[in-house]
Structure formats: structure tokens, C-alpha cells
Amino acid sequence: MLETIRSIVSIASYFVLPTIIVGFPLYGLIKGVRVYEVFVEGAKEGFEVAVTIIPYLIAILFAIGMFRASGAMDFLVNALDPVLALIGIPAEVVPMGIVRPLTGSGSAGLVADMINQYGEDSLVVKMVATMFGSTETTFYVIAVYFGAVNVRETRHAVPAGLLADFVGFLASVYIVKLLFG
Prior knowledge:
Blueprint (H helix, E strand, L loop, with lengths): L1 H29 L4 H35 L2 H15 L7 H6 L4 H15 L4 H12 L3 H11 L8 H24 L1
Helix pairs in contact: 2-7, 5-6, 6-8
């Protein structure tokens, strides 16, 4: 049964990206949307948003750099290792759980570092890569979207986003263990 699921996921993965790349423009054409013009307009708006959010992004990247450079990340991982071992979570994946809600590029760099350190077929790298794909850069998204429209009060957005990230973190560990462990 598990091997059948692996085979289906493997085969389906070949078709996902081509379907998206061809599917969206084709759907737009069927609906009568001037796809290229709409794309260019969206790109212009995206550039304007990017200029608006640069200060928020600099603040996030600075905070992450300070956290890692200070040794606080390593201290936290070492402190949590005994507790995480009890529930079957490798301590090596904790940095992704911390960095991913903050930055996509930082978490991509973390995945690359872990691939170099553990090898691309290791269980830890599979967990981290799954987290990368199934969690969100919560603070980045809030900085982008709330900053773009000058919203200062985030209310429930941060707790809801962090809860979703935590669930994605746990699900990534246990699903990878189920499929590959």
C-alpha cells in the first residue's frame, strides 16, 4: 500500500509544474483574458510592492542574521534536543522550524547547507525539504501584504500563521518518517 502511494506521488510529480505553466495561461485564454497584458500589469504592481516593503525585509533579514551569528540558534537546538528526542523529532530540523516563518531565502540557504552536511537522500534533509515546501514565511508574508497596504495591527494573522507553520513542521516530520523512515 505504501509503495503504491509512493509510486503515484512520483508519477504525479512529473506533471504538476508543466500543468501549472500551461494550465493558467490556457485557462485565461479560454476565459477571454488578455493574458500577456494582465501579466505585465501584475509585474508592474509587484515591482511597486517590492520597493514599498524593502525596509520590512531588511529588518527581518537583519534579525535572522543576528540570531544565527550570536549562537542563539545552536543553543536553542541543543537545549531542545532531549525533549524532541522523546517525541521522535530530530533536533537538526529545528533551525528550519525557526527560520522558515521568517524568510524564504534564509530557509533555502538552510536546506542547501543541510544537503551539503547530511546528503540529499538523508531523512533529515527530506524532512527539511518537506517543511520548506509545506510551511509559509509567515513574517515575510505579513511584512509584504500588511506593509503594502500600511496595516499596522495584525490581530490574529501572526498567531494563526505561526500555528499553521507549527502544524506543517510536525506534519513534515511525521509524514516523511511514515513514507521514508
